[in-house]
Amino acid sequence: MRLFEIPSYTRMVAMEQDRTVYRAWLQHQYGRRWRKRAGAEALLPFTMAPFGLSVDEALALPRLQQEAADARAAAEQDRIEEAAAREEQRLLDAEERAAAAKVRHRSPAPRRPEGGRRVHCHARRPAEASPLDGPR
Questions:
Q1: The model's pTM
Q2: Residue 49 to residues 10, 21, 53, 115, 123: CA-CA distances in angstroms?
Q3: Is 12 exposed, middle or buried (0-12, 13-18, 19+ CB in 10 A)?
């Protein structure tokens, strides 16, 4: 016998007994109009019975779906944070490359003569003495 997608007759009978007990509990909890007063999650075992789910499995479905949604949201948040960190690192690398290129393209600093003293650009060299300086 194959009823409600369950191949075992004993398992199917046990599941039907669980649903009967659950129905009696709902009637006790919500009164005469228990089908109208009970929420959708409370009635889920009766909806999922044709798919072979027990009362406990059917009542666990909303919690499992919420946990899966939370896990997906956490994974998405991690992905967003990793992408932001990669973008920040990319910008830092670009700034470093730009600074390095700027340093490479800058003209080299003027070299000091052998003595290590600075030479003024208008300073005269001894060989270029001015005629106004007089005889030596």
A1: 0.51
A2: 15, 14, 5, 99, 103
A3: middle
Residue 66, phi then psi, degrees to nearest 5: -65, -40
Question: Token pair 């009362």 is at which residue?
Answer: 55
- The predicted-structure confidence for 3-41, as pLDDT tens digits, reads as follows 566 778 888 888 889 999 999 999 999 998 998 899 888
**Is-contact 37 30, C-beta < 8 A?**
yes
Instruction: Return the number of other C-beta atoms located less than 10 Å from residue 24's C-beta.
Output: 11
Question: For residues 13 and 16, what is the distance between their CA atoms, to the nearest angstrom?
Answer: 5
In the chain the first and final C-alpha atoms are separated, in Å, by 130
CB 50 within 8 A of CB 5: yes
**Among all chains, which residue has been given the structure tokens 């956490």?**
74
